[in-house]
Design goal:
alpha+beta, Immunoglobulin-like, six-stranded antiparallel sheet, Glycosyltransferase
Amino acid sequence: YNFMMTPICPSAAGLPGVSPHALIRGNYYTTKFMDAWDVAVKTIPDLPQLEKETVDFVKEICESTLPQSIKEAALNNVSTLRTQTCFRIPDGHFFGFEGTHDDKGCCFGSCTHVWNYETATAFLFPRLARTMRDMELQYSTHESGSIAFRTKLPLIKACGETPGRPAADGQMGVIMKLYREWHISGDNRFLKEMWPYAKKALAYAWLPGSWDADQDGVMEGVQHNTYDVEFFGPNPMMSVWYLGALWCAEEMAHAMGDGEFAVKCRTLYERGSKWIDDNLFNGEYYIQIIKPASDPEQVPKEHLYGIASSDPLNPDFQVGTGCLIDQLVGQYMAHIVGIGHLLDPVHVKKAAGSIYQYNFKADLYNHFNNMRTFALNDESAVLICSWPRGGRPKVPFIYFNEVMTGFEYQAAALMMYENMIDEGINVVNAIRSRYDGKKRNPWDEAECGHHYARAMASWSTLLALSGFHFSAVDQSIMFNPKVHENDFKTFWCAGNARGTYNQNTGNNGLNTIIAVNYGSVELKNISLGLPEMTKSIKKADVKAGDRKVSNRLKISDGIAEVTLKKPVKLKENEKLTITLY
């Protein structure tokens, strides 16, 4: 006999104490079924297809030539999307805690600075990701431009007279992720709807007393962030997020016909990028210049609420000369969204190397940590911060000695993007060794709660090693494998399609197949990284199925850029074959 359990919970508890009207939040799936019996009646006929699609998805990843630890990290953490960390409210908006306690959600409100790091949702379920941007921009953005980093329920577009509490990293991340969601979807109407809020959110940084009040392209104001403290003065973590937001806003402004705003964003970006390289890079990594508030009365009240805000004239809980694990988290996201280097590439690679050199520990026998223990004894891990040149503040920020996988995956992916392949893989190996099913649950990477959202940054390592990028706006796709370049296979997913990519070398040429296994995708521009033995390529033959496709080939910096004469739409079970010779 087959048995089905079909619980249905139309009156799911909300967030008591967060909003007086949020005692019942409901669930989206209850709008699709009348009762538990209806769930069974409607689901049973679909089970074979649902199971097939699920198994196909898992097989496509498992059969790739990526390292085992990368596949495990990407796949296992995706399970968080199906835990109590995540849910959809009745109108369809996707919502998330940071993680889950044993009996309830942990840290409500789809926290912007935590969800900044994860990438699985945007690539696997892009429509859900767009509801998150809608929630942040339309429902959590005050008329001043401040984005509350925790969204309350029920959703109300009018944010009231008092601005919500913004996180500098979370707010800039929202702008970069809007750019990502626009490119993955190709939905210009979505961008047009979101753009006025995003523009206001960026301009919020320029208000008197705000993060970049002097408009020099560098965040210097009081910056609340994902470490639950305020950073005072210029620092790479916040400022590189800001640079990425400026770059993305420039591109979106051009698309919206807002040339004047685009020029301002470009001017601030160029000014800020140069200043950060000139003033924060110490030859090995980027540091913070601690700059107490000159006049606390001028600091917006919504900026002073964390544990570092008690004495703005002499702040504790700073980084200073430390080597921070996510000093370049904005650069990490820049690589993912495809905008390239925001700072001097030589400096960026050196800083990524310093994170590995100084923060990666082969074991933790001699490591003292006064906070939570997520790794110990003979386990390898990357510490949140170190001070290799000395100068550690008397009272550093609170999590500096901890180990948390979401931050580690971010650092690993950054290293991979900077062609530090062995180092990046070694970091992921260390994480998966700790969560190997014997010492810890392999589907539950914890931080503040179980099934922590930030850990879904693991998906980024799959993107980085595949060299994958996709834009429905440009009708472009890119693969630039960092491992097994001569015989490579990977899974890809973006927009309305998912599939596999294969490449192998032969006769000094490169044979590639882009297969669509689900959905459809329209392509015009294909970029392919060339293995060393194929750098003399002169021509490209392209076929959509058995049909030859006219194209133009350009080789630039080891990348074969194939431009099709007309866009090709690939449907389910169709392939695009490109032979370079």
